[in-house]
Amino acid sequence: MFGRFLATKMQHGLLQKPMTPFVRMIHSSGARLNKVAVVGAAGGIGQPLSLLLKLNPRVTALALYDVAPITPGVAADLSHLPTNSKVTGHTGDGALADALKDCDVVVIPAGVPRKPGMTRDDLFNINASIVASTIAQCAISCPNAHYLIISNPVNSTVPIASEVLKAKKTYDARKLYGVTSLDLCRAETFIGEFMNKDQRQVKVPVVGGHAGKTILPLLSHTGGAFKQEDKDALTHRIMFGGDEVVQAKQGGGSATLSMAYAGARFTESVLAAIQDGKVVEEYAFVESKLGYAPFFSSKVSLDKGGVKEVHDVGALDDFEKKLFEEMKPELNAQVEKGIAFGKKYAEEKL
Ligand SMILES: NC(=O)C1=CN([C@@H]2O[C@H](COP(=O)(O)OP(=O)(O)OC[C@H]3O[C@@H](n4cnc5c(N)ncnc54)[C@H](O)[C@@H]3O)[C@@H](O)[C@H]2O)C=CC1
Ligand SMILES: O=C([O-])CC(=O)C(=O)O
Question: What are the positions of the active site (predicted)?
Fold first, then answer.
């Protein structure tokens, strides 16, 4: 069972056997390797995400930062794994700067998760400042890094980060991403199950944002023929997949293990683009000139410099067109809320 789990992860490029010939070759070739930091590393997402990143041979230095005192222990625990990365744990005053120094990629799952009955926007009051202060330190310690934001509400935390980076004069829109990969994972899983297909072969675009009705899967792009009632049910389940987990955990938090997988998968894509110089296609919530909202999730082509191209959503059927129009005001309001907070934070705190 566990063997099959590992084999699947290896196919996705998330895991490799420790010190494979590939890893030894990278070591000896002097190829460029990567330092990755996880901010919020002791949390429900942070710990399994750090494990998956520790197993990724592209990562040579893994810095774990969290305000929780257990963080050096999490690093000590992972440091016993025979992979090619050195892991360090950081907590306390000044520790964030140490963790971020020389980072190529910073993954940020710091902040509070939802409880039943809450929306992601209800997390804004706490998580907005956590993301703003983390990104402000990133601008000082690793101004050229790629920033992958997991902390909710993503529709607002990414615009917040952009305003803080602009105020710090280090903003590069190509390197700031809201991680929406879990929406893609859910779409692949639920539609694959429904179509009785290998879920790894299923591709479903998911566009918009990362909260309820702003999450829009495009079933018309899957090649499947769906009855309207099935389209309604599948679309609703993908939009509200987060709530399914929040309710099942009964007050114990939101998706952590699936998010760790999704976050590691997206990080692997960014690292592959940086390291191999090949164009990698992904979905992410990025600054967008498509005209739907200032930040929008759609297909992006990544290369060494980050987002090389943001792709439009393509043809929509009538059902998707209606949902698309309905989503725009909510998404724009959440983005604007983030921008306003980011500007105010920059004025008052930076
Ligand atoms: N983008 C997405 O698809 C998803 C996003 N999330 C979001 O990810 C966030 C984290 O979720 P969990 O890991 O389940 O929560 P958690 O509460 O288990 O872990 C969060 C961690 O952040 C740490 N933290 C708090 N303030 C910090 C700061 N200033 N600097 C560094 N670390 C700090 C905490 O000590 C804790 O260890 C939540 O906002 C959640 O809503 C969750 C699932 C999916
Ligand atoms: O639902 C939540 O609060 C966490 C999340 O973003 C997700 O699982 O998609």
Answer: 210 (proton acceptor)
pLDDT band of residue 277 (cuts 50, 70, 90) is confident
Give every CB contact of residue 253 below 8 A, 6+ residues apart in sequence. Answer: 44, 113, 114, 115, 246
Was 58 annotated as part of a binding site? Answer: no
Shared-domain flag, residues 138 and 195: no
Residue 338 counted as domain residue = no
Same domain, 241 and 161: no
Domain that holds residue 108: 35-179
**In a shared domain, residues 100 and 133:** yes
What is the tens place of the pLDDT at every residue in 205-230? 999 999 999 999 999 999 999 999 99
**Beta partners for residue 282, in sequence order:** 300
Give the Å distance between the CA of 48 and the centre of ligand 1: 12
Assess whether 90 carries a catalytic annotation: no
Number of structural domains (the chain) is 2
The pTM score is 0.93
Q: Which numbered atom of ligand 1 lies nearest the CA of 150?
A: 1
The answer on 206 and 113 residing in a single domain is: no
Q: Is the domain of 185 the same as that of 326?
A: yes
Q: How far apart are CA 158 and CA 128, in angstroms?
A: 10
β-pair type (295-303, 306-310): antiparallel
Whether residues 325 and 199 fall in one domain: yes
- Given a cut of 70, whether residue 28 has pLDDT beyond it is no
How far is the centre of ligand 2, averaged over its atoms, from the C-alpha of 243 (Å)? Answer: 7
**Is there a domain that residue 21 lies in?**
no
The answer to whether residue 101 sits within a structural domain is yes
Does residue 188 carry a pLDDT above 90? yes
Ligand 2 centroid to Cα of residue 152, in Å, is 8
The upper half-sphere exposure of residue 321, i.e. CA atoms within 13 Å in the direction of its Cβ, equals 4
Measured CA to CA, the distance from residue 156 to residue 295 in angstroms comes to: 9
- For ligand 2, atom 5, name the residue with the nearest CA: 242
